[in-house]
Amino acid sequence: MAIQTYTAGTSVGNAYVSSGNTAVTFMSICNFSALEVTANVYVVPSTASFSPNNIVFQNLSLTPGETYQIYGGQERLILGPSDSIQINASSGAAVTTVTSYAQI
After folding, report:
1. Who's near 91: CB < 8 A, 6+ residues apart?
2. Which residue in 11, 56, 61, 101 has a CA-CA distance of 20 to 30 Å to 90?
3. CATH code at 69?
4. Do 36 and 95 form a contact (C-beta atoms < 8 A)?
5. Residue 63's domain spans which residues?
6. What's the pTM value of the predicted model, to 2 decimals?
7. Burial, 34: exposed, middle or buried (Cβ in 10 Å; 0-12, 13-18, 19+)?
8. DSSP H helical segments within the chain, as ranges?
């Protein structure tokens, strides 16, 4: 397994891009700022762009210091080559993600 971290900005960016067939085994999103923020999370096929069609969390509200676990436990998100998890936040440099994944 491997781990990838990402700091979200106000523009949508890649929190994780699959390099082959992978299984996301854990993902968290954390507001490390002193203000409440919202975040949007998209699971985007390699042949598409982020859109309302692939949003999984819209305006997820995060209070200061709050961490939200998106995937964990026995859950797995299976991604193909170049599929991605993309994110943006209402405030830049306030939200981080940690993603654990394994090649399959």
Report:
1. 10, 33, 35, 37
2. 101
3. 2.60.120
4. no
5. 2-103
6. 0.93
7. exposed
8. none
